[in-house]
Amino acid sequence: MDWSKEEGLFRDALEHIVRLNPKFVVIGGDMQHYYPKNEGSTNGILSNYTEAGPMQANDCRAIISNTLVEANIPVQILPGNHDLDDAPDTNSLNYYNDQWESYSRDIGGDNFAAYSGREQNYQEVRGQYYHFTVQGVVFIVLNSQFYYDDSDLLDSTKYKQTKWFESIINDIQKMSDVKNVVVLTHIPPFGGFPDENHGWANWRIEDRNKIMSIAYSNASSSNISTFFYPSLWLCGHFHGNAQYAGPAVAKLEALNGINDIVTIEVVVTNSVTSPMEWDGVPANEPFSSEEWINVATIPSAADAFEKYIVPDVSRITGGSSKAGLRFVEFFDDGSYRHKYFTIDEIAAVQSINDATMVGSTFQSPPWDNSARKKAFDKNPAVNDN
Predict the structure, then answer these.
(1) How many CB atoms lie within 10 A of CB 47?
(2) Residue 157 DSSP symbol
């Protein structure tokens, strides 16, 4: 087994990131290709070499240490399905925490300490689900595997994560200095439409609706300028690029008629080592919603691979002209812009500025931060627990 090509792409990407010196880096999961367990797994050959996974994780950790850590650039690593298995259990969660929990540290000055009234059972779990804040932007990390797998192995853990997510959304409303809210997950909740069928590259519909309800059901036309909710979801998993911008939910009755006022963006970023040209779509180009549906809602990744990759293995385009990364910039008013760069493209970039971000996607937050601040100052009791 040889993954030196993938190591080289990963190292090149991180070296360019070090040169550009961002505030922090998020690595979207799947730090190993081979799954950590084979008993009860349905992942075929990728579960037959469980000794290879830790070797790959160690190699990734060495590259991160020699680049980002050495340059003092904080890094957050999300739990991916290859890190945990598609149907994780307690052993695979413990394995993941042993590998990566130390990277899940606060990097921006945690200002939730004053709002710690939630029950002890629903405290965040570093490495699995947690939050951090950077210059007023709240980043919420969720373990998306809990919302992908339909087994009951970790129902209690999923329940605790979901209750914790609810508590964080409630806590955010008690703060005056939030500029934006971002959710980070490996698998996206959806990528084409909010009500798309469940498949290998999105969440189960029941879990998707539950989380969307928690995040958005309290928004209304009367408070939309002051109610904070996640406006941006940043995800991976798909080995391709996709962007959805639109209603958070598909049906008006699903969340009390808020569909026409709550809009979000779900951004899926390509692999930095192994892009795949599903259905022939260039790996460095974004999928349309229809193209996404064709691939992402296939029941299993193995079926999708068999249909779209096996007939033409050249669609695995592990090269620097397709593999890449995404830069996301936030501004003082909470607005943001983002752009995907291939490794070849980022090699030519000397700094992130207006010129290099030409062609980026720009979004303003749906709320009015000045209105939020005025409402908070007028009624400081909202700060009480």
Answers:
(1) 19
(2) H
φ/ψ of 261, rounded to 5, equals -120, -20
What's the rounded Cα separation, in Å, for the pair 72 and 147?
Answer: 33
Angle, CA of 128, 246 and 167, to the nearest 5°: 35
Per the CB < 8 A criterion, the answer to whether 346 and 13 are in contact is yes
The type of residue at 57 is A
Torsion 287-292-296-302 (CA) sign: negative
Residue 190 token pair: 């959806």
Tokens 């930095």 belong to 272
Stated pTM of the model: 0.90
For residue range 113-134, list pLDDT tens digits in order. 333 334 444 677 877 899 988 9
Strand, helix or coil for residue 292 = helix
357, burial (CB in 10 Å: exposed 0-12, middle 13-18, buried 19+): middle
Q: Please name every residue paired with 342 in a beta bridge, in sequence order, or none if there are none.
A: 324
Q: What integer is the mean pLDDT of 274-294?
A: 91
